[in-house]
Amino acid sequence: MKNGEGYWRAVGETPDGKWLLEEGAVVNGIKDGKWIGKLADSTRYYEEVYDLGQFKSGVSWINGTKTEYASARVQPEFKGGVKELYKFLGMNIRYPVDAARSGVSGRVMLSFVVCEDGSMCEYKVENRVGYGLDEEALRVVKLMNGKWNPGEMRGQKVRVKYNVPINFQIEGPTFRR
């Protein structure tokens, strides 16, 4: 490849420790035309078509099973979308009494994994606030289990780590429960 033009071939490691070869044409430093990828153990193979960096279509084979896909990657999504996610949180969160009495507000950042079947696992509080806010945020996030559409990579459902911030804010000078 020269000056962002030519043919690109790369070897890398997948998250599960397998070697992946990916190759295809590059125009102006971006993918163009047909790209192929395959695992060194030949259990997975894919072909994707790009038009000046824009993904157009793809097909993958895993252990001989063919899958066509319209997006290379699909992020997990709460059923009904982001609006429904925040509606769910708003309807289920209860401001902890200790935090309210102490006038504590803050943002709790949680992470979890959306599994291949849409269930959730590996919950973690990434940013703690205290005063019961962390526990309440985690309690409500766990209520969302089973309410997710899983993520996909090259037409196959995959586990994806997801982060969600939950803001706790006391409104007005007086807060009563």
Automatic annotation (TrEMBL):
Claim: DNA repair is one of the keywords in the record: no
Alphabetized InterPro entries for the sequence: TonB-dependent_transducer (IPR051045), TonB/TolA_C (IPR006260), TonB_C (IPR037682)
Keywords: Cell inner membrane, Cell membrane, Membrane, Protein transport, Transmembrane, Transmembrane helix, Transport
Compartment(s) of residence: Cell inner membrane
Membrane topology: Single-pass membrane protein
Record GO terms (molecular function): energy transducer activity
GO CC, any one term: plasma membrane protein complex
GO biological process: protein transport; transmembrane transport
PANTHER family per record: PROTEIN TONB, PROTEIN TONB-RELATED
Superkingdom to which the source organism belongs: Bacteria
Domain TonB C-terminal, chain residue ranges per copy: 80-177
Family: Belongs to the TonB family.
Protein name: Energy transducer TonB
